[in-house]
Specification:
By secondary structure, the protein is an alpha/beta fold. 33% of the residues lie in helices and 12% in strands. A 7-stranded parallel β-sheet has the order 3-2-1-4-5-6-9, with helices on both faces.
Length: 582
Amino acid sequence: MLFAFYVSGHGYGHATRVSALTRHLLQVDGVQVFIVSSAPKLVFADAIEMGARYRNAHIDPVIVQPLAYRVDRQKSVAALKSFLEKKDAMLETEQVWLKEINADCVLSDAAFLGCLAAKGVGIPAILVTNFTFDSVYSYLSTSLVDAPTVTSPDESHTVHHHIDAQLADVPVPPEELKPLVEQIHAGYRCADLLLRLPGYIPIPSFAVEPQLPSSEWVNPLTNRFTEHVLALLDVPPSASGRQIIPIPLLVRPPSPSIYSVAGRSKLLDSIGIPPHRHSNKILVVSFGGQVFRRPGSATPSTPKRLSRELSPVRHSLDGNHLADALGRLAKSNGALPRLTLPSPLDSPSPGSLLTSSRIATASHICIPGAPPVSKPTSPLSPTSATGGLPSFQTIPPTPIEYTPSNVNFEPAEDEFDSDYFPQLLPDDSWLAIVCGVSKEQWNAVADGGMNDDLPDSFFVAPRDVYMPDLTAVADVLLGKLGYGTVAECVDSCTPFVYVSRPLFIEEHGLRRLLEKDGVGVELPRELYEAGDWAGAIRDAWAMGCAAKEAKRGDDTGLEKKKEEGRQMADVIVKWVGAQGRS
C-alpha cells in the first residue's frame, strides 16, 4: 500500500507530526510512504531514515509572518492569489505523478491541493490535522487589530535590517477573501476522512457549523471563541455527518535515556553547560525555525563559555509578578489593559538575515525568530528612556490574564519604588538555553569573542539540537503558540510560557489543549520584549512542577506512545483497504 503524504510548508509543526505518523505507518508490513512538501528534506530525516521517500514541491500557499507572533495580512493574501492563479497547472502535475507511482491514498496535513489531486485520480484522501487553512485565511478579515509595539532607535541599524513589521495592521475586506477561501474549502471537501488531532478548531469542510467566515467565531473584544463555537467543539464527531476519527497527539519521541541523570548530562554537556549547573532549573527559549535531527547524531563542538556575570537582582517580587507589575503601573498611569514598553530593536523583515552574526549586544539579546529582548539593566521609572512611565493602549491583541478583576491595585506605599527591575530569570537557580541560531551565529558562539554580551546564565543550543530531548529536560519553555511546541510540551509535561500570535486562529485550539492537558501561561509581548519574563516563568513552574517531576520518574510513556502509533497506523491501513479505487 503506497501513501502520498502532502505536507504544508508553513512551519515545522506540520513536518514534525507528519514525520511521527510516517514512522508509525512504515512499521506496518508492505506500507510505503512518499512525502511531498516545500519544507526542507532535513526536517523529515527521522521518517526518511526508516524508508520514506521525499519529493520537494510547491503544493500550498503560505501565511507571511514577519515575526514569530505577527501576521502580514496583505502579503499573505497576495501569496494566496499567486498560488491560486497557478493551481490548475499544479493540480495537473500532481495527478500525473500520483498515477505514475500508483498511489493508493493521499494523506494531507493540511494541503488542500493533495485532496483535489486524489479525487482527480479516483483514490481516497485523508486529512490529518487540527485546523485547515480556509479558516486561517478567512480570519484575516477579523476586526481585531494587532497593533505593533513602538520601537526606539538605538543600535538596531547594526543588528537588523529595517522592517515592515511596524506597518499598520489592516483587516482584509471579507468580499476580497471569500472567493479565494472558497477555492481552498472546495479542495478540503474532497477529503473522505478526517483524523482530527488534539488542539483542534472547527474544520468547516467536515462540519455543518460553524460556517465561514471564521472571523465570526471569535469575539474581538475578548479574543476568545464565542460560547456557541466552544459548545460546537464539544459535539461528538459522529454528529458532523462526515467521518471524523479523533487521534492522539502526534509528536516525535525523545531519546529513551533523556530522563536519566546520564542522558540529561550528556545533552547539557553538548550545549556547553558546566557540570556544576546541570542541576539548575532550565528555561528553553524557542520561537521556531530550528533545524531538526535524529537522536544520536553528532553534535557540533562545544562553544566556549561566556564570561559576563548577571547583575544581582536588588528587588525581587514574589507571587504574581506580572499582576503586581501591571497593577502598579496601571495605578500610576490610570489606564489598562495593554502595556507598551519601549521595544528593544527593530524586528527583522520577512526572510531577512541578521546583518551581524551576534546574538547579543550590550543591551539586547537577539532571539531567533522573534524580536530582540531588552536586557534589564535599569529600573522602570519616570526617568527611563521614554521620558515617563510606559504608555497603555486600550485594545489588546490578546487578553492579558492579569486584569483589574483579579489584581489588587492597592500595594503598600513602599512596595513600588525605583529599585524595581524587570527580570529575565526568577533567580540564580535558573539558566536559559536559546534555540534556533543560524550556522553563522553558531560558529560565532563556538569561536568565542562575538557574543560575550550574553548574560552568564544564557547558553546557545547547537543549531541542530534534537528539540524533543531539549523540551524533555526543560523545566519551562518560552515560545510562540504553535502545534509542534505545544504538543511536545504536553507530551513531556513541560510548562509553557507563550507569546500569543492573535491573527493565527489555530492558537485558540492550542490554548484549549494547554488548559486541558498541560500548563500554559501567557506572557504579554511587551513584557517579553522588555525582558520581564521571571514572573511568568515562576507562575508556570509553580503550576506544572509536580507533573514534570512525575514525568521524569515514569519510564512507561515511550511504550504507550509506540502502542498508540501502531494502533493509529493499523486503523489507517484497514480504512484505505476497505475503500478501493473509484
